[in-house]
Amino acid sequence: MAAAYRIEGSYYEACNCEAICPCRQQNGVADGLSTYGNCDFLLSWHIAKGQAGDIDLSGLAVGIAGHYDDNEPGSPWSVTIYVGENATDDQFESLSEIFRGDAGGNMYFTGNFANIRGPKRAHIVLDHSAGEERIQIGEIAGAEAVRNVAFDGTVSCGISGHDHPGQESVSSLYCDDGPLKWQYKERCGFATDFAYFS
Hints:
mainly beta, three-stranded antiparallel beta sheet, 1 helix, globular
């Protein structure tokens, strides 16, 4: 039985869709499928405060690179999960359980995972400063916000939760890790906060 957990902090993602990403809700209304029929994405979480049982998870970082195709039934996700290399063994195991979806809770997006590589340790550097968001995972993956997108109302994402609206951006991203190989200039990004718990 996985330990009860709660983690919260900041979130930033980028993908190959055009901004505003069709997957977002705009003023509470869902749009549609990926701009180009497939999604290559890089997601990141900085855990400002977190606990799983008696294990402190504060200050740690997690990243996920992945892909799915709108034409595959159910659009299953193939992902690689990265946990910051500074995590202790206990912290690594706890975050692995949580981000694989094995610990349950309100991380509903993990139900889309069909093929998981990792979790594996990586050197993760995150800057979630407003308007300057950046992800760097070793030499294999990265993303950065280029400019914010003006929008009259709220934009939200199902990964962080629609109760956490945030800021859409034009972002660039790349990945070169096993089967995940792509590079895009000036596509879409999204930044907000998150709170997951079981």
